[in-house]
Amino acid sequence: MNKLASKKTPARIAPGFFNQLQNYLQLMRLDKPIGVWLLLWPTLWALWLAGEGHPDPGIFIVFMLGVVIMRSAGCVLNDFADRNIDPYVERTRMRPIASGAVAPMEALTLFAALALIAIGLAAMLNRPAQLLAVIGAGLTVAYPFIKRFVSIPQFILGAAFGWAVPMAFAAQTGETAQLAWLVFGTALIWAVIYDTFYAMVDRDDDLKVGIKSTAILFGDADLFVVGGLQLLMLTALVFIGNMAELGSWYYGSIFIAAILMAWHQWLARDRQAAACFRVFRHNQYIGMIIFIGIVLHYTFSPVVP
Predict the structure, then answer these.
(1) How far is CA 23 from CA 107, 135, 233, 302, in A?
(2) Strands, E, within the chain: which ranges?
(3) Backbone angles phi, psi at 247, to 5 degrees
(4) Residue 191 in contact with residue 201, Cβ under 8 Å?
(5) Cα separations in angstroms, 61 against 47, 118, 121, 185, 288
(6) Is the pLDDT of residue 1 over 60?
(7) What is the DSSP string of 1-17?
(8) Residue 271 region by backbone torsions, left for phi larger than 0, else alpha for psi between -120 and 50, else beta
(9) Distance (Å, whole) CA 73 – CA 198
(10) What percent of the chain has pLDDT over 90?
């Protein structure tokens, strides 16, 4: 009887373990990689521009791992901060902490573990990049809490998502030149654009629970303001091309990005939640197209001796 019970015990434990592991993965949003892509593309822009088409392989690996780890850590901390709000928002009420599948202390432990991994990755970079990493960590921690106090939390999110840009330049070149900050500013503007569309999905719920966002701040002028930001982003991308001496492949990618932005405006014209969420998710292709333009420039443009 005891032998039979001992054989059955692992079978009873294993499903619970794997179910909780799945909850942790959901808490880190690894089942929804859209955030990874939105963080990844500006990082890749920076690595390729800083390395003039040939980023250091070791630095490349560190930043790719860092993108996943920092995005996961940010999601965990965000859900911890919103644990008393998410249950009252339709889109977030089934998140692991909100639903009770993961305890708040479990989430903090997971965040600490991810933070330690991030520190280990930053330790592999040079001193200038490490100093910038400290600021990036501060932005990551600040964002989940600041949306309760300021009306433009999307700008803080944009700074956090774009901070890998100056870090990449510092890691690759040892300094953050003017081009690095121009790319950072472009990434910040882009984040405000796509996260405003994201906030438009939750606008009614956010008003009820007291969360601030640019979607609420812009009000009925939301699409007009976002359109202005889209034009500003396209202009900044042109300045990047001029400063980095990029060619027709790159400018072609800007043209395609402009078409996509116009399509996004059309999709969101009625401000329906499903359409706004689709636009948010589709923004990843803008980042991808710009990156393809950069890669094609360094791959096919003639080298001037």
Answers:
(1) 10, 30, 37, 50
(2) none
(3) -110, -155
(4) no
(5) 11, 13, 10, 24, 18
(6) no
(7) -HHHHHHHHHHHHHHHH
(8) left
(9) 20
(10) 74
- AA letter at 273: A
Residue 284 confidence (pLDDT) above 60: yes
Under DSSP, is residue 101 helix (H, G, I), strand (E, B) or coil?
coil
**What's the chain's length in residues?**
305
Set out the domains of the chain in order of their start, with CATH numbers. 18-300 (1.10.357.140)
Given a contact cutoff of 8 angstroms between Cβ atoms, the answer to whether 41 and 288 are in contact is yes
Q: Quick one: which H or E segment has residue 232?
A: helix 222-243
DSSP tag of 98: T
Specify the pLDDT at position 91: 80
d(CA 265, CA 247): 28
Indicate the pTM of the whole model.
0.90
Which of 4-8, 106-110, 192-196, 294-298 shows the lowest mean pLDDT across its residues?
A: 4-8
- Report the candidate in 189, 184, 197, 165 with the shortest Cα–Cα distance to residue 263: 197
Place of tokens 């609420």: 216
192: left (phi over 0), alpha (psi -120 to 50) or beta: alpha
- Cα torsion 263, 267, 270, 273: sign: negative
CA distance 96 to 93: 9
183-223 pLDDT tens trace: 999 999 999 999 999 999 988 888 888 888 899 999 999 99
Q: Give the helix/strand (H/E) hosting 117.
A: helix 104-122
Sign of the dihedral through C-alpha 43, 267, 152, 113: negative
Nearest to 144 by CA among 74, 229, 247, 241: 74
